[in-house]
Inverse folding.
């Protein structure tokens, strides 16, 4: 039987939770070691982050990007390291926002020893970006646009090309909806302006943009707080469920273009490089396809992510459409709330059992405690099972 490919899903801003994955800390050395290295390299700042991470709910500190972003990066990297050490490196990695940067570290684009410095550079890039926010909307992008009177001044975000080019490893490597090669997406500002759908100026919702597509009916908006409040009132009046995310910035919107440029300039000093052979393939939630060698070496590709919308669901859907049944995928959900795998559970490839969701962490009241280690061990067992069932069991007499 051909082995299923494993896909590591890593969360970003908005999905942070108190004590996320903390139940593995001290219980799994392969997770504990990279976390301790991260905290140690940041000195007193690291000690403060460790304290904020281990503090139980409620912890409003986690709403601050300077706390949430480094912890999401560190936890995502440590979780991937733990899976790779205890089982085997995931074949594919799909990260949401800062989760994509964690994926890049896992495959060797950036040196894992630089994780702390990367987090600090990202935080510095955000300085002076002003206050904004993000709003999760239980509606499709099209429905949101209709309710807000249209999202103009930008390209449509959804709709990837039917029949993308697929490489030898089965991963789409080129072909966007407009037919442009993925390798052409490099400059932060160009990518952001070309791919952001935003509300036209002169309205009460001016400055609000589509920041992420997280599911068929899960759209995230970002923008100035006052404009977002007006959007929230309008959508609630229309009977649409909305929820403010734990973010003090309008990530993945034009408001972040300056920060994206600064972060790209800072990343150049880290010398991004082509991923290590056999380390896994990063599928970008910015482009929806596999990161090319040219993009991997381009610091502005990674920096520009701050201002570009996150196409998480289109990227995950494309993986399930193309690889979900041949021979199937094991979706390793690294989020503390199972949000990364939630939309996949409704995909036909998962519903009929060809592909499978495998949680890595406990949720609810059990999250952040001993149950994390139990759920993680169950995930490793599932990975081991599928590996054992695909090896050659021929007996030599």
């Amino acid at each position: 039987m051909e082995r299923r490919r494993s896909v590591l899903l890593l969360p970003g801003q908005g999905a942070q939770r108190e004590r996320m994955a903390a139940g593995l800390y001290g219980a799994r050395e392969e997770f504990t070691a990279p976390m301790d290295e991260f905290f140690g390299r940041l000195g007193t700042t690291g000690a403060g982050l460790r304290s904020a991470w281990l503090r139980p709910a409620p912890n409003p500190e986690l709403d601050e990007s300077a706390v949430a972003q480094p912890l999401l990066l560190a936890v995502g990297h440590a979780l991937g390291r733990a899976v790779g050490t205890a089982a085997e490196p995931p074949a594919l990695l799909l990260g949401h926002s800062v989760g994509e940067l964690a994926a890049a570290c896992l495959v060797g684009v950036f040196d894992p020893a630089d994780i702390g410095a990367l987090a600090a550079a990202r935080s510095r890039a955000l300085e002076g970006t002003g206050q904004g926010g993000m709003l999760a909307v239980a509606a499709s992008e099209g429905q949101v646009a209709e309710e807000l009177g249209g999202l103009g001044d930008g390209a449509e975000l959804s709709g990837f090309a039917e029949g993308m080019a697929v490489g030898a490893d089965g991963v789409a490597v080129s072909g966007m909806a407009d037919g442009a090669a993925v390798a052409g997406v490099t400059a932060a500002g160009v990518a952001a302006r070309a791919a952001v759908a935003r509300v036209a100026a002169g309205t009460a919702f001016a400055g609000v943009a589509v920041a992420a597509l997280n599911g068929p009916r899960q759209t995230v908006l970002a923008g100035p707080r006052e404009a977002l409040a007006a959007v929230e009132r309008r959508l609630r009046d229309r009977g649409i469920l909305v929820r403010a995310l734990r973010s003090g910035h309008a990530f993945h919107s034009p408001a972040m273009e300056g920060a994206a440029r600064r972060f790209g300039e800072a990343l150049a000093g880290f010398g991004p490089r082509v991923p290590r052979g056999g380390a896994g393939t990063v599928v970008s939630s910015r482009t929806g396809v596999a990161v090319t060698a040219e993009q991997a070496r381009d610091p502005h590709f990674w920096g520009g992510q701050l201002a570009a919308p996150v196409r998480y669901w289109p990227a995950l859907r494309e993986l399930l459409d193309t690889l979900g049944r041949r021979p199937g995928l094991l979706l390793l959900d690294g989020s503390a709330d199972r949000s990364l795998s939630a939309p996949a559970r409704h995909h036909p490839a998962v519903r009929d059992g060809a592909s499978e969701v495998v949680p890595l962490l406990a949720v609810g009241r059990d999250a952040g405690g001993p149950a994390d280690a139990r759920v993680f061990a169950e995930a490793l067992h599932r990975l081991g099972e599928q590996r054992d069932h695909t090896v050659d069991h021929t007996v030599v007499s």
